Automatic annotation (TrEMBL):
It is found in: Cell membrane. Its main location: membrane. This is MFS transporter. The chain crosses the membrane at residues 20-42, 54-73, 79-99, 111-132, 165-193, 233-256, 262-282, 294-315, 327-351, 363-386, 392-415. It comes from Viridibacillus soli. Keywords: Cell membrane, Membrane, Transmembrane, Transmembrane helix.
Length: 431
């Protein structure tokens, strides 16, 4: 209990508190919009492949603009940059709300919205993510990431439920209004923050191409960092497409569930993520490598439960029964997100402590580009697999990804244990 309470001490850092308030507010609005857009597009298309294509569309700006965003994140005023993109996204959403009062939100408008917000996101994300390591001491990064993730996951409970209810009751227009207001609140919060004065850069000026490659060079220079980034790539290639395409498609289109069923499942998944904050303080003594490994092992459990989707009798049991459907997918998502959120706390804390501050934005951008490529490929494959005659194929795809995540973590474990042994030998020699 004492360890858990000490984790909350980081909230005394006013700048950190404002940062996570901005992050969670913006996230709430985005997720509020995302679930409504997902249900809206799924209703219009009725096809897992077309649905996946719309979601994949939002990934292309990450690939095209990703490396550029990293350079900008390391060179420009973070405060002005973040506020600007909050205002741009908020302005678009409020404009769409006004348009929806007299017009219909068509698929082309959805395409434009997805592309515009995704473009702003990729130019915004590296800058925003590079703020945390500059305002929190390295020894407090695990606590900071734990608190930040818990608050964000709380927003993920509220957003799916409220987004589903608002979309179902009053339509997509009001969802745009809420999303727009959330971006403006986020901008105001960032405006109130006091950023640390940036020290003059001592690094040599690089050419544009070398500047872009800097982020990838940082990744390849550290084998453990490469292991962590590879794990993130596999998450975006195998796990995210299954969650964002497969679960809503199965619940609504195959099992005949209601929009609210999907909203409940999403929210229960977030309860699992929140529970991670209570586990993190209990396992700190195990070290980063072991804790990442524990999270990965935990993610295999729900993958095993999903195998039942390949049984037609099981599908028949779930079909038309909201209680069974919601219960089954809630259990899966609870375990999956508990394990995933636990693992991400240590995952993020590791790279935040290892990546040089002057290259941090480009590192984040390089990771986003890699993850974007993985997502596009994953959405395409998952869309095709769910269109086949059995759900066992996308489940096998997910299982392969989960096993690969374990395999790429092995180098991290081996290197860490060798370093720990060497340190123990040096301590013994000194004694």
């Amino acid at each position: 209990m004492a360890n858990m309470l000490s984790s909350f001490g980081i909230l005394k850092n006013k700048t950190f508190s404002l940062l996570i308030t901005s992050e969670s507010t913006s996230l709430f609005g985005t997720l509020f919009l995302n679930i409504a857009l997902s249900l809206y597009v799924l209703k219009l298309t009725g096809s897992p492949e077309k649905f996946a294509s719309v979601l994949a569309l939002g990934i292309f700006p990450h690939i095209v603009l990703g490396s550029i965003s990293g350079i900008l994140a390391d060179k420009f005023n973070k405060k002005v940059w973040v506020i600007t993109f909050d205002i741009l996204r908020g302005g678009l959403c409020l404009g769409l709300f006004l348009y929806s009062l007299n017009g219909t939100i068509s698929i082309p408008i959805i395409y434009f919205t997805v592309l515009f917000i995704a473009s702003c996101d990729i130019l915004f994300a590296p800058m925003f993510m590079s703020i945390l390591p500059t305002i929190v001491p390295q020894e407090k990064l695990v606590d900071a990431n734990s608190i930040s993730r818990t608050l964000n996951e709380t927003m993920k409970i509220l957003a799916p439920l409220l987004g589903t209810l608002v979309y179902t009751m009053v339509g997509l227009g009001t969802v745009f209004l809420v999303n727009g207001l959330s971006f403006f609140i986020s901008a105001i919060t960032i405006y109130l923050m006091k950023f640390p004065v940036k020290a003059p850069s001592t690094r040599k000026k690089l050419t544009f191409i070398k500047d872009i490659s800097e982020g990838f060079r940082v990744i390849y220079a550290d084998k453990r960092l490469m292991s962590v980034v590879s794990n993130a790539f596999l998450t975006h290639t195998f796990l995210y497409p299954f969650l964002f395409v497969g679960i809503p498609y199965v619940i609504v289109n195959i099992l005949g569930g209601q929009n609210t069923d999907y909203g409940i499942v999403e929210s229960v998944a977030t309860v699992g993520s929140i529970m991670a904050i209570f586990v993190v303080p209990l396992t700190k003594h195990l070290g980063v490598a072991n804790n990442i490994g524990l999270g990965l092992l935990g993610m295999l459990v729900p993958v095993g439960l999903l195998i039942f989707l390949g049984n037609p009798n099981f599908i028949e049991l779930l079909a038309g029964n909201s209680f069974y459907t919601v219960g089954y997918f809630s259990i899966i998502n609870f375990i999956l997100f508990l394990s995933f959120s636990f693992y991400v706390v240590y995952f993020a804390s590791y790279y935040q402590s290892k990546v040089p501050r002057e290259s941090y934005g480009r590192f984040i951008a390089s990771v986003i580009v890699m993850n974007g490529i993985g997502k596009v490929a994953g959405f395409k494959v998952v869309g095709m697999l769910f269109a086949m005659d059995s759900l066992i194929y996308p489940v096998i795809f997910l299982a392969i990804g989960a096993l690969m995540k374990l395999v790429v973590h092995i180098p991290f474990m081996v290197i860490t244990r060798n370093i720990e042994k060497q340190n123990n030998v040096e301590v013994s020699t000194e004694v």
